[in-house]
Prior knowledge:
Blueprint: H1 3-16, H2 36-50, H3 56-60, H4 65-77
Helix pairs in contact: 1-2
Amino acid sequence: MTAVFAEVRVLMAETLRIPAADIRPDGSLDDLQVDSLAMAELCVVLESTYGSKVDGDRLARARTVDELVTLVEKGIRR
């Protein structure tokens, strides 16, 4: 588990009001019931946490937690 995954997991749990234990790297965002409204809310939280380095449009296309975390990591490295 990367440090970014651990941070994103906490942010997701708080934002989406789901148990952090339910958030696994290979977990489907659909299975976590992350709909477009929840994703928009999560994007706002991630952007405020990591700055404007997070691409909200690309995040919205993520299908798994791992894809979402990878996009956040790429944004941070820029």
